[in-house]
Amino acid sequence: MRYDLVIFDNDGVLVDSEPLSNRLLADYLTELGFPTTIEDSYRDFMGAAAHTVHDVIAERYAGAKLPATFDEDFHARVFASFRERLTPVAGAPELLTWVREQGIRYCVASSAHHEWIRTAHSVTGLRPFFSDDLLFSAQDVGRGKPEPDLFLHAAERMGVAPARCVVFEDSPLGVAAARAAGMDVYGYAALTPRQRLSGATGLIDDLGQVPALL
Length: 214
Known about the structure:
Blueprint: E1 5-8, H1 18-31, H2 38-45, H3 51-60, H4 70-85, H5 92-101, E2 106-110, H6 114-124, E3 135-137, H7 149-158, E4 165-169, H8 172-180, E5 184-188, E6 202-204, H9 210-213
Parallel strand pairs: 1-2, 1-4, 2-3, 4-5, 5-6
Helix pairs in contact: 1-2, 1-4, 4-6
């Protein structure tokens, strides 16, 4: 099928940020008195909007609240790590170059805030591929994945029917959101176990497999 719009998740699909951000999140929550392993963070928060961390902690710890500056402080730690260590996912620059050369329309739809997305793109050299009108965040719609709002918002703003979109995702929440939006979705299983992405239209292990799907 020839799709009219390719929607990329950002973290874990285009930039190799998941190991960095989930380690930092687990360490920070543990530091605050909420013991969390990196495996816990992957399971509970990967692909989720920022408010999910607050919601989960409140649910598990009898209404406990994270510090008012938690999001700001966590982002500062992540951005510092990004500037030192973040790299693009293997094959991402080449794939984006190919997509653009083929004239295929594309965008990013991420649970992360716009500042997070822009910082990641600047550090990894992907910024030239994305003007502001090609970046969509859960910040824009209020409800993040697994709700379909973000993907539907991106499709509407790009002027493409959901059924004509294909999504590339690396989290179960993202796969569920794309399916709920009525879109085909391919799970990128480089980090996430394949069985956790079983709801996807198909699975890939390497971004080099994407051109054949488009």
